[in-house]
C-alpha cells in the first residue's frame, strides 16, 4: 500500500490514497466562540473514523494511518462570521459495502452533537466509484441516452424494457396528480377520484406520503378500489392503466392499447414485514409500481424494498417526506443533494425533488444541480450549482425527478423549461381544484403540457413567452381557460432560505 503522509488542515491533502478509493466530504462548520476551526475539523474527521476523546492502548493494535479520516482543507465562508468549509476524506474500508445505513451512521452519527461545534452541515460528498459499484441502486432506473426518458424495468419474463416504450409516451414529461384531500376519503371515494383524473388525460395518479392504512381507509380496500378505477378508465379511454401503490408498488402488464396509465399506491408501513406484505398484494393485483417514504421508513427498509422490486419487476416511486427537517436550515443538517445521492444508491426509480416555482423550498440552480446528480451518469464539479465534487456513477441507473407541490397550469412553461422531458410533473390541487371537476382539471393540465412542449420544440423561449403559450392554448381548450382564470393570482413568491 502507498504510505500515508501526515497533513495539517489547510495544507493540502496528500494522503497517498487513490481517488477511486477515496471518500470526500464537504462540511459547513460553525465552531463555538474561541474554538479554532482546525480543532473542529480534526474532531469531525476523528469522531467519524478512528478517534475518541483520549488516547487508548488499543490504538497500537491497528494501523491508524490506514483507517483514520483526514481534514485536508479548511476555508472561510465568504460573507459569514466564524463559519468555515471543512474538507474531510475517509478511506473506503471504513464503510460496509452496499449499506447507506452504515455510511450515514459513520459520517453524520455522533459528530453533529459535538459541544465544540455550534452548527455543522454536510453539504456534499464524493462517493468513489469502487464504493458505488457495491450498490444495486434503483430497481430499474433512468437509462441513457438522454434523448428519451428511459426508465427501464424488469418484466416477469426477465426482459428489460424502457418505461417510455412500455407506456408508449414519448417526447414529453409524464403527467400526474396526487389525490386530495390526502386524508379523510373512504376507499371507494378515493378510487372515484383516481378514475376521474385518469379519464381526463393524466398518465398516473398517486397516494400522498401519509396515506398508509388509517381507520377511514384501510390499505387493502384502497388497493382494490384503485385497481377497479384503473381498469375502468382504461376501458373507457382505450388506454392501459398503470397502478402505483404507496410502498408504492406497481407491475407492468401487457396490453395492445396505445397508452398505459397508473396510480402509485403507498405501501409504507409500521414494519418491514407489513410493507412487504403490501408490496406483494400490489404485485398480485397486477400493478407496475409501488411507492415508499424513504426517510421516515429508513434506508434499511428502502434498500430491502428496492431489492424486492428489482426481483419482482416493480418500479419504485420514492417520496421524501421529512427531508426539510434535515436539509432546510442553511447552517446545520444535511443538504438534499446528499440525500438524493443516498437514495440513488439505496434504490428508487422516481424521487420528489421540488419544483422551484411551487409552494416548497428550492432555488433554481441548486435544484438543477441535484436533479443532474439524480439523472446523469457523470457530473462535473460546478460550485455555481452546488456541485462541489465531480461524481462518476459508473453506470448506476439514474432516478427520475418528480416535481410536485403547489403547482398549477400557469407554472407549466417554467416546469417544462426547468426539468425538460425526463421528469414527472404532479399536480394535486392543480388538478382536483378545477372548478368543473377532476376530469376537466386533468384535461387542462394535459393541454397545457402538450402546448408547452410543442412551443418549445418550435423554438419558443418558454422562460420569456410561456404565458403567451398558455393564453393561446386557452382559446381552444375551455378546461384550460377555466383553470387559468381560477389560479391567475396564485403565486408562491418567498425568499429562498437555503442559498449557495
UniProtKB/TrEMBL annotation:
Cofactor entry: Mg(2+)
The Ribulose bisphosphate carboxylase large subunit C-terminal domain extends over: 160-251, 256-487
Q: Which residues form the Ribulose bisphosphate carboxylase large subunit ferrodoxin-like N-terminal domain?
A: 27-131
The free-text cofactor remark is: Binds 1 Mg(2+) ion per subunit.
Q: Which reaction does it catalyse?
A: 2 (2R)-3-phosphoglycerate + 2 H(+) = D-ribulose 1,5-bisphosphate + CO2 + H2O; D-ribulose 1,5-bisphosphate + O2 = 2-phosphoglycolate + (2R)-3-phosphoglycerate + 2 H(+)
> Subunit structure, per the record?
Heterohexadecamer of 8 large chains and 8 small chains; disulfide-linked. The disulfide link is formed within the large subunit homodimers.
The protein's name is Ribulose bisphosphate carboxylase large chain
* Source species of the chain: Uronema confervicola
**Record lineage:** Eukaryota, Viridiplantae, Chlorophyta, core chlorophytes, Chlorophyceae
Amino acid at each position: 500500500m502507498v504510505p500515508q503522509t501526515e497533513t495539517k488542515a489547510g495544507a493540502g491533502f496528500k494522503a497517498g490514497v487513490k481517488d477511486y478509493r477515496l471518500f470526500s466530504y464537504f462540511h459547513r462548520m460553525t465552531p463555538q466562540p474561541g474554538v479554532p476551526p482546525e480543532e473542529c475539523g480534526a474532531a469531525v474527521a476523528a469522531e467519524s473514523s478512528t478517534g475518541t476523546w483520549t488516547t487508548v492502548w488499543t490504538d497500537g493494535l491497528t494501523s491508524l494511518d490506514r483507517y483514520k479520516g483526514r481534514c485536508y482543507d479548511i476555508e472561510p465562508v465568504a460573507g459569514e462570521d466564524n463559519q468555515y468549509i471543512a474538507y474531510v476524506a475517509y478511506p473506503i474500508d471504513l464503510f460496509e459495502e452496499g449499506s447507506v445505513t452504515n455510511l450515514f451512521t459513520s459520517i453524520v452519527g455522533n459528530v453533529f452533537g459535538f459541544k465544540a461545534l455550534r452548527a455543522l452541515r454536510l453539504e456534499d460528498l464524493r462517493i468513489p466509484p469502487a464504493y458505488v459499484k457495491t450498490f444495486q441502486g434503483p430497481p430499474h432506473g433512468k437509462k441513457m441516452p438522454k434523448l428519451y426518458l428511459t426508465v427501464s424495468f424488469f418484466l416477469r419474463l426477465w426482459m428489460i424494457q424502457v418505461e417510455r416504450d412500455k407506456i408508449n409516451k414519448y417526447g414529453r414529461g409524464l403527467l400526474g396528480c396526487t389525490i386530495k384531500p390526502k386524508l379523510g376519503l373512504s376507499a371507494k371515494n378515493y378510487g372515484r377520484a383516481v378514475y376521474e383524473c385518469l379519464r381526463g388525460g393524466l398518465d398516473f395518479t398517486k397516494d400522498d406520503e401519509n396515506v398508509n392504512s388509517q381507520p377511514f381507509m384501510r390499505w387493502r380496500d384502497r388497493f382494490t378500489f384503485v385497481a377497479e378505477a384503473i381498469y375502468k378508465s382504461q376501458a373507457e379511454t382505450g388506454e392501459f392503466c398503470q397502478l402505483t401503490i404507496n410502498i408504492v408498488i406497481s407491475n407492468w402488464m401487457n396490453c395492445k392499447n396505445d397508452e398505459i396509465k397508473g396510480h402509485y399506491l403507498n405501501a409504507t408501513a409500521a414494519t418491514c414485514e407489513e410493507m412487504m406484505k403490501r408490496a406483494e398484494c400490489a404485485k398480485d393485483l397486477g400493478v407496475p409500481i409501488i411507492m415508499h417514504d424513504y426517510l421516515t421508513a429508513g434506508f434499511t427498509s428502502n434498500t430491502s424494498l428496492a431489492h424486492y422490486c428489482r426481483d419482482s419487476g416493480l418500479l419504485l416511486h420514492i417520496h421524501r417526506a421529512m427531508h426539510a427537517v434535515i436539509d432546510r436550515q442553511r447552517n446545520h443538517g444535511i443538504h438534499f443533494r446528499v440525500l438524493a445521492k443516498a437514495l440513488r444508491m439505496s434504490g428508487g426509480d422516481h424521487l420528489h425533488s421540488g419544483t422551484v416555482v411551487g409552494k416548497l423550498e428550492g432555488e433554481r440552480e441548486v435544484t438543477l444541480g441535484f436533479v443532474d446528480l439524480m439523472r446523469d451518469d457523470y457530473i462535473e464539479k460546478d460550485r455555481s450549482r452546488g456541485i462541489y465534487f465531480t461524481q462518476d456513477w459508473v453506470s448506476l441507473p439514474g432516478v427520475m425527478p418528480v416535481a410536485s407541490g403547489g403547482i398549477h397550469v400557469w407554472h407549466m412553461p417554467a416546469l417544462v423549461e426547468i426539468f425538460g422531458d425526463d421528469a414527472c410533473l404532479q399536480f394535486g390541487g392543480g388538478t382536483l381544484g378545477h372548478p368543473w371537476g377532476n376530469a376537466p382539471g386533468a384535461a387542462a393540465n394535459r393541454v397545457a403540457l402538450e402546448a408547452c412542449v410543442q412551443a418549445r420544440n418550435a423554438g419558443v423561449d418558454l422562460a420569456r413567452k410561456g404565458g403567451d403559450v398558455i393564453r393561446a392554448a386557452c382559446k381552444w381548450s375551455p378546461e384550460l381557460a377555466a383553470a387559468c382564470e381560477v389560479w391567475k393570482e396564485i403565486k408562491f413568491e418567498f425568499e429562498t432560505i437555503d442559498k449557495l
